[in-house]
Design a protein that fits this description.
Elements lengths: L2 H6 L5 E5 L5 H14 L7 E5 L2 H20 L2 H10 L6 H16 L5 E4 H11 L11 E2 L3 H16 L3 H13 L3 H13 L1 H7 L6 H13 L13 H14 L5 H14 L6 H12 L13 H6 L2 H53 L3 E2 L1 H13 L4 H11 L2 E4 L7 H17 L6 E6 L14 H14 L2 E5 L1 E2 L4 H11 L2 H7 L6 E2 L6 E5 L25 H22 L3 E4 L2 E4 L5 E5 L5 H11 L3 E3 L2 E3 L4 H14 L4 H9 L7 H9 L5 H9 L7 H15 L5 H11 L2 H6 L4 H20 L8 H11 L2 E3 L10 E5 L8 E6 L12 E6 L9 E6 L6 H9 L6 H9 L2 E7 L11 H9 L7 E5 L29 E2 L8 H22 L5 H12 L5 H16 L1 H5 L8 E10 L5 E10 L4 E7 L9 H6 L2 H14 L5 E7 L4 E5 L2
Length: about 1100
Amino acid sequence: MSNLDHSTHPLNNANVFASAGSGKTWLLIARICRLLLAGAEPQHILAITFTRKSAAEMRARLFGTLESWAVADDRQLSVYLTDIGESDDTRNIKIARCLYEKCLFSEQRIRISTFHAFCEEVIRAFPLESELPTSFEVNEHFQLYATQAWQQLLQQSERDQKLHEALDELYKFCYGYQGARKALMTFLAARSEWLTYILNREDPVNFAYQNLLRDLGNEKQEEDAFLTSDQCIADLQNYRRILLTSSTQTHRQWASKLALLFETDYSDKPLFIERLKAVFLTGKNEIRKLTISKKWQTSLSADDYQHLTDTHGQVGALLLNLINAKKHNRLLRANRAWYFAGHQFLRHFQTAKFSQGIIDFNDLEWETFRLLQHEHNVQWVQYKLGQRIRHFLVDEFQDTNPTQWHLLKPLVEASHEQHENNSASLFLVGDVKQSIYRFRGANPQIQAIASTWSQEFLNSNEIRNDHSWRSSPAIINLVNKVFTHPSMQDAFGSFLLHSCQHEKRWGKVKILPLTPIEEKQELQDFRDPLSSPFFDSEESAHFHEGCQIADEIRALIDDETPVYEGDTVRPANYGDIIILTRNRSHLKDIKAGLLQAGIPFNANDPSRLLEYLEIKDMMALLKVLVDPYDDLNLVHVLRSPIFHACDQDLIELRKADASGWWKKLELVASTKPPLHPLLIAFNKLTDWQNLTDHIPVHDLMSHIYNSANILANYQSSVAEFEAAHVGNRLNQFLHQCLELDSGRYSGISRFLRKLKLLNPEVSDSSDNHGHNAVEIITVHSAKGLEAPIVFIADSGPNHEPPEQFRTLTHWPAEVGSPTSFLLGCSKDKMSESATLFSESIKTRDEELNLLYVALTRAKQILLVTGSQSRRNGISWHQILCNILEIEAGEIYEKEFSARPVPSQTHIPAENIQSTEIPEALFRPLSITKHEATYPEAVKSVTREGIIIHKLLEILSESSMPADQQLVNRISLETRYEVTPDELQQFKQEAMNCLQNENVKAMFKLSDNQQAFNEFAIATTGNQQKINIIDRLIISEELAWIIDFKTQGNVSKDNARQLAQTHIPQLSRYKQAVALLYPGLPIRCSIVFTKLPALVDLEI
């Protein structure tokens, strides 16, 4: 039986160790299909993966496969069945055709979900057995509830002496309030492990502390009495006498420090010890090296030489032992305090969530684990779930954490006990080499443990698959050479050579030299931070790396690099390229380099919403609505794109004779013309303030967005490539207004406080370029992805500063709960025993796993770039250079096979010429204002009319934007370019119109009016036409048609006469509108923008 048949056969339990690109998802789909063919009911199958995206993809591929079976002819279906290792007999073909309908209309469908979704299903199925709120909502607002819990903890400490002492101990150990809070936050982050650790323990704190003593040892005696004894003082005095015989300056300095020591009050032991350390120990608490020259040694007697060396070594060792004992005891006390305060902190955290019916992903896992492990009703739960689920399939099993494995294991056991006639199965697939989520608790050892367990108890098969269906030989050869190198064996473990399906496919590997760091220029004077930016040479290096990547991308596109797509070869486009980064530290600089080169890209770069300037503007606006006398935020809002006040406006406000900026604004605004930014700002802010106490925050912000045209103003204030991102973030801010407690907040202040605590993550990715754009993602986000061309960026030294405080847990994969749980800290606070213990439980570094994942994403071409750094850290670039023997500054480039010729020529979209369609073949609806049918003079009038109409629309809905913003919006929304002189002319004409009360009225709408600009409407008759109405206002009482005329031969005397000439045009408009709004009175008007004047027509 082949590996394929072993792994997909429905009667076999299998553990598949599948390398990158070997088709794990295909294997899972094939396994499910064969289960269904063998008669398994859809509701008895559970397939688990680790992200919702992966689950959705798996579901789509499964149903896509079943659908193709339903419509395939016998020959095609026979091929499909043979491909998955199934026989193509008549019976299977008949069953296969019906599976799509069976799965589609089954009352209980196949479960394809994440671990968390499965846990939620289990808990909702057993509400009485669960200790969670009966009607709960799952969200991950950790920071919000952690902050509430922290406040509750501090309040408790005021009346609880024991908690007060525990927090005080943490303050001393963790450098104060912020350090203690950070240490307790790490406790909270590991709450699932803590709850499992102390499960069924009556005194959890004492249990944890006793285990800590077992791991680190009991408290140590702090032996410092000898150091202040008469014997030691005498030895030190003799030691000093000998030092003074040396001619070395260092030795004489030690002697001077000892003289100061002898003047110390020996009862003041802390001061005495510190002065003694200054002589014998370095700043890193290591014994100073005692250098004795031959000349000095010759001058010393044997006894003096012996005394000098013995005293130096003995006192140094005594000091080190004392320091270690103090560190050890402080660490024990701090951990005991951490256990006590952390346990109380967790209790408040859970209460804060549960009181609002909220649970998080940790709660889901932990509660499911508890239900399936340690409760009196565990057999009942396992029995019921075992009846429902008979076939378990788990993808990416290397990323499973111990909690997940130990909640899944009893279900598998129960299912196999209830269905002994081979009607239950287990299928696990993963790759230890791709385990890169240890920060989430993943333990790659679990896959080996699970494999051993399933072989012993379920007679499962262990299958290895190192055959890549993804990568070209150029990529696979590199991977094999790197990970079989002797230098990698200890760190990476055993590695089996990979093979590839596409043995003759062309591919290439290119490794570029690291981008150098620019030398800092010596500054002659102090830097002026207002005019001279801070120079960071490493940021500059990563910017140049981005430029280097852009050059390589441009060359790939211009060179029409061949890319395989099925059986054809085509030229590469931007959408074929992925840029991988190790983390987001330097992503901003690399993106800047790409932007400068004009490379289209999408960067899925989650960041915090409140970090962005436009969101800070919205926050400042809400603060001003709460308190208009908040001068700083008021100036912030006035200067923002909301109102476009300029520097001169602010100077004028500053000089105004009034107290406070709000009063100044009120005074100055009263002297301004109607469209001045300060007057508009004062009027709008006053209106919005009147609404704050009457409508929810979301409704208020929605009103502000519409009345001030926020999205358009902000998008026109930034470069075109940024507009979509800005709009996306503003919309997400509006969504948060609704999301927080479903928009029920009556007060802005409360909303602002909660939003500041949450500061939700926002993805700054928008499909600004469609699919033809380079994708920039981190290696962690790239799991499961592939691309023809992959750049590994930022491959130079990666320096991640160690966390000051962290939770150290030891949870061997083979046991049901952690065996150790303690507070880890920086090296200077760790005792020798704590350091040895932390090293003993340390798992293999993930850096090489990340490198493996990064190298195996490429299908054809891999390029590696990086930047130099002054910091030390693991350098992927250096690893590759060492193994491939690449000299410094050398460009490494290696191709495999002959380069194919693309079968189709790539034509940039902008160079494609439109084809004239003969009227006889296709006649589109004619548009009465289509420029192509007008002579040049009329085209000019039409262009002017469209631009002025757009200006009227813009200026009526917001304050006066800056000229460049007006140009941007006109270009974006009308496709017309305007010169600065034209803009001033058109803007003045539009402003004159808006000062006319009759014209102004058509832009000041009431709540029951709705306006449409450039409204397209079809007219009936012998020839159907599309008419464009400049402005149409609809209310319950009236439909108002308005047409703008920019002709220059109009005056007050002939305006009505000229208006009459347009009656036929407006008659068509009226006829069409009457069909849309039957029975509604219709008003028709002409607006001459040059006068300005509004003329009503009787039609």
